[in-house]
Write a structure and sequence with these properties.
The chain is an alpha+beta fold. It has helices spanning 25-31, 37-44, 63-69, 118-122, 143-149; strands spanning 13-14, 49-59, 77-86, 89-99, 128-130, 134-139, 158-168, 171-179. Strands 1, 2, 3, 4, 5, 6, 7 and 8 form an 8-stranded antiparallel β-sheet that branches.
């Protein structure tokens, strides 16, 4: 059933492009927090925080990801998809797109993170620079929505996400973080 719907992509907005009140108040502090999501989840998690890798494959990114990274069409990237858990409850679905050129030099290790958090690596790097955050409301009919809610027993009508480009030694990677309903129960 989802085959045809998988081709739709979310529409991402910078904060300045949003109408006042567009993003839900309960999630605003999560969506626009410039700090490490891993650090915030770890600090607010009443149980064990963990990363569960769903996939890590070489493929062509979505069109909106290609545009955001300034890549050429059909350029391969390492795409890593994970769930971030707090006390065995999925809180966030994260998708990282790393262009092949960004995995050279000091950044080669990003291809072998395993179940380590990417955020802990990025925010520990003194040369890391983060671009402006974009947000999106994801709904049924969008491939990223289906990937994010696949683990949930009951999928909500919509979920919210944010994304931004991180630069390590001026090499870009795009990180999208999709917030699942349970995250609203954390501080």
């Amino acid at each position: 059933m989802h085959g045809l719907q998988q081709h739709h992509e979310p529409v991402w907005y910078f904060r300045r492009e949003l109408r006042h009140g567009y993003a839900p108040q309960a999630l605003s502090s999560w969506l626009f927090d410039p700090g490490s999501l891993t650090a915030r989840l770890t600090a607010n998690c009443p149980g064990l925080f963990r990363v569960e890798v769903q996939s890590q494959v070489w493929r062509s990114p979505q069109h909106n990801e290609i545009r955001r990274l300034g890549m050429r069409e059909r350029q391969m990237s390492l795409i890593r998809e994970v769930y971030l858990y707090c006390a065995d409850r999925p809180m966030v679905f994260a998708r990282t797109v790393i262009p092949r050129e960004s995995l050279s030099g000091r950044q080669r290790h990003l291809a072998g993170l395993g179940s380590r958090s990417l955020g802990s690596v990025l925010f520990a790097d003194p040369h890391m620079h983060r671009d402006e955050i974009e947000v999106a409301r994801l709904r049924a009919g969008e491939g990223l929505y289906y990937k994010a809610v696949a683990i949930l027993a009951k999928a909500p009508a919509s979920i919210w996400g944010r994304r931004s480009v991180f630069y390590l030694d001026r090499k870009p990677l795009l990180v999208s973080e999709i917030f699942l309903p349970a995250v609203e129960q954390l501080a």
